[in-house]
Amino acid sequence: MFFHRETWDTYELARMMGSSSLFVMPGLGGLGLNSAMACGLPIICTQADGTELDLVKEGKNGWFFQNGNYHDLARVIMKVLAEDEVLNRGW
Question: What are the residues whose beta carbons fall under 8 Å from the beta carbon of 13, sequence distance 6 or more?
Fold first, then answer.
């Protein structure tokens, strides 16, 4: 699912995140990480301003990819999706 700023609706966003298994932040961050954590979703993100280092713990509640390296992003997504227990862990 992709979220577009023009279509943000609090209830719809909560419904979509509540029915998701994984949150991917392909850019440099924002409050999306907090929303994903509030919904109990595992996170894939990159290092931006450093706050994500306090929120996301590699292999515990998420994974990092190299900033700007979309091949690495794809690698991490494929790795996570290949591990069934990861998406069913109940973060």
Answer: 3, 35
Hunting for tokens 């794809």 — which residue is that? 74
Which ranges of the chain does DSSP label H, i.e. alpha helix? 10-18, 32-38, 51-55, 70-82, 84-87
Instruction: Tell me how far apart the alpha carbons of residues 6 and 63 are, in angstroms, rounded to a whole number.
Output: 28
Average pLDDT over residues 13-19: 84
DSSP class of residue 71 equals: H
28: nearest Cα among 8, 7, 50 = 50
Q: Token pair of 19, please?
A: 């029915």
Q: Is the Cβ–Cβ distance between 14 and 33 less than 8 Å? A: no
| Mean pLDDT for the stretch of residues 6-15 | 75
